[in-house]
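Q: Give me the 3D complex with zinc ion.
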Amino acid sequence: MNEKEISIELSHSLSEWGVPKDTQFEFRRGVILVGIGYFRARGNDASSSIEDLTSPSSRRMLRDSNAALTDITAAFEYYLQYEDIIAPIFCYEDMINMDASEPYYRWYNISTRKIEYKLKPKFLGISSQYLDPFDRFRYEEMSKEEHFFSKWLVDNGNKAAIGGKLMEVYLGCHVLRYEVCFHCNSRKSIRWNGASISSWQALVCLTCNATYEVKTKANMEDVESAFRFNKIIGGSFEEFCKIRNSQLQPKMFCVLLPRKSIAKDPHTQVYPVYVAEITKGVPQLYHGAFNKRLPKLRFKTRLSVSLSTKKKWFDLPVPNTPVDVGGIGKKVFIDRFSMGKYCEMKKIYFGDNNDSSSDDESNNCNSNSEIIDAVAEITKGIRDIKIRHTSCATKEG
Ligand SMILES: [Zn+2]
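A: Here is the predicted complex, encoded as structure tokens.
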């Protein structure tokens, strides 16, 4: 990768969002300059996340967090206790209800030998004035309490987020105990770093410095197609560059697993865990780029992996009992904030409904699981209610 490739990639990404070249020249230029700045960022400076892992406080954090990985429930509770987010936090609303996806795709026109941009079929029929990304999204700032309450205790039609975290925590528990590093085969060398605010280092190997970015997909078909298309969307591009440019130059791997188990044999259900080495990461714009109240531009990373390195790492067994995600969320929320805040948030999100059943989130378990996400398999206790999406300032940015 070089700087020219980064600017070309961002230019395509801007056009896929429909940002015009003539009227938005300055914005486009700013995006490309920021992207190149991230690309140059070295991982050895004070803000480096990879360096952090060797500092005494990070060592302590890693030791404590890994001691907490006794079982999936304890580990999940630990994760919620330490989960953090960079303020300001915004939720967004996509006024055309298109899941905040970009309206255009790039396409190589053989006759003109140029890349052109075509409207995706699902956007046909929407008037172009509604596609302007600067008008399309409404952003509203939210407090940490609102953010965590909605993330932990309200299913906003996106159980994938908290369910994916639960899977990641469970994967960490299992790897620490039973698996060797995929890269160097060391035993007991992998540490879980999942509660850290930085992306890319959910699992790290203390022997060879390999980092593992964990991604979950709804089911095995989606895992296979993610490898087939080989354009996996990952976390912060700035963090990606810092790790890639750091002195350690760790091998970076992408771990993919389904949130729905498959039958290994007639008696055993498992989550097959696949891994491949990351070869390339390019910046991609997402809806947060159009929120002018965010202090700086953030990009996601579009990853490519080396398919010749793709291998099944191991089969993750299905846990014996479901995890009471809602119950743990409530407990940690009250611990971290207060009972008063919990009641206040509950009123905001669920209204004044004070009948006894409303407090027993577990009653609603699986009520809508098939339309929500296959992760309902091992979670319970998140209530089904549609809210606006939380976004922008998370580590995904
Ligand atoms: Zn290793």
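A quick observation: The chain has a mean pLDDT of 83.
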